[in-house]
Design goal:
With 255 residues, the protein is mostly helical. 77% of the residues lie in helices and 0% in strands.
């Protein structure tokens, strides 16, 4: 009798487990490819910027493997660009390291913003996603997280957006390194960095406060451009964060 009941129940349990696995697989694929799709429009600005980095890296005397290795290890466009420019200017290594660290300091803010959504992940997932964290991946991921309810597989969205950008960056920098010699020097490809950041910022300006903060940060960066080692950018970020936090507290309803 017990064996008969077991034989009847086992297929039901197996089908239920298979259904759950099928649903989980569907949600994983859905989140992953949604992240890929969201990242694709931003590649219009990223790819020319990656090519430009490759061209500049070779122009300042970096070996091919060093230029490619920097893209795969550092994986940070603005820091790589600043780094090869400082290398070309033969600045001390300490200055180069400190400057690139300061340029990438904004990633600390990105990480703090994403942390509440990813706090339950295992360490290996956090390490992988931290490596894939970039301006473009952060922009689409945080917008997605703020619009969606809590989903158990939403970290796959981050993975999809991050891997899409990583692949495009590696390929575009490789093109710049190996084919940079045939690109005319008078092409203003470095302007693609500006276009990329404009494409990231505009969708995030959803109210007057955020727009005012962005404009103020732009003015500060512009009027302090004479500061060495691109410290004007760091100053603009600090002021923008302070103004943003103040504006957010001011807009909260008083109890």
């Amino acid at each position: 009798m017990v064996q008969r009941v077991r034989n009847q129940v086992s297929p039901l349990v197996s089908s239920y487990a298979a259904g759950r696995m099928s649903k989980a697989s569907f949600e994983v694929r859905s989140e992953f490819f949604a992240g890929v799709k969201a990242e694709l429009p931003l590649l219009i600005g990223v790819i020319p910027f990656g090519v430009t980095y490759g061209v500049v890296a070779i122009a300042v005397g970096r070996p091919i493997m060093a230029a490619l290795g920097m893209s795969s290890i550092v994986f940070a466009g603005s820091a790589q660009f600043v780094g090869v420019q400082l290398f070309g200017a033969t600045v001390p290594v300490a200055v180069l390291l400190i400057t690139t660290f300061m340029v990438n300091l904004r990633h600390t803010l990105y990480s703090a913003s994403l942390a509440p959504y990813l706090e339950r992940l295992r360490l290996r997932w956090k390490l992988l996603l931290s490596y894939l964290l970039t301006d473009e991946a952060y922009a689409v991921t945080i917008a997605h997280y703020r619009q969606q309810v809590a989903l158990p597989y939403r970290h796959w969205y981050f993975l999809g957006s991050g891997l899409t950008l990583w692949t495009a960056w590696q390929l575009s920098t490789s093109v710049g390194v190996f084919l940079g010699a045939v690109i005319p020097e008078n092409w203003p490809l470095d302007f693609t960095l500006t276009l990329t950041f404009i494409a990231l910022v505009i969708p995030m300006l959803k109210d007057r406060a955020s727009t005012a903060v962005a404009i103020m940060a732009g003015f500060i960066a512009l009027f302090t451009i004479s500061l060495p080692f691109r410290l004007n950018l760091i100053l603009a970020v600090i002021v923008a964060v302070a103004l943003g936090v103040s504006a957010d507290r001011f807009q909260q309803p008083r109890r």
